[in-house]
Amino acid sequence: MGTPIIDLYHPRSQALFDYWSSLPRDGVLPLRSSFLPEKIPQILPTLIIYEVISPTFINFRLAGTAVRERMGLDPTGKNYLDYVSAERKVKAGQSFFAVVDHPCGMRVVSNHGMASGHKKFLEVLMLPMKNDMSEHPIAMCQSNEIKPEKEEIFQDPDLLENITVMRRDFIDIGAGISDFKD
């Protein structure tokens, strides 16, 4: 493991991938109980831990400080899909299941409208873990700005739900890749 078959843009994405790759495994996936975020402090501000409960409920178990600041709120305990536009909710939920059910990694490059009124260009890396601490699968995520020098502010609040997926890459972690398509 160690090097994904795609080039990750942000060093924190690579740091999560490297640490995740080093963890003890139960088959293809590392165990959630072995993930000790304090071992990789540089990723903490942009770390998100999702608990994939159902196609309509993706629970924010943890959101780092930079993620909370970007969103303008603390989403911990809330449904990720509540922050996705109505026309993207089904596909967004399916993308999480593509990662945890297959299992495989996923990198998404997208534009995100934030509750703060800002628009950010992000690289999001998602990696599945076997949840030996509860019944629902876990997806570890890094959400990093990759073009922070150009910031756009929306005046129209309807545009804040705009998420444009620029590219989606799946990463073979030992079980092939998902055939999910947007």
From TrEMBL:
InterPro entries: DUF1457 (IPR009922)
Pfam families with a match to the protein in the record: PAS_5
Protein name per its UniProtKB record: PAS domain-containing protein
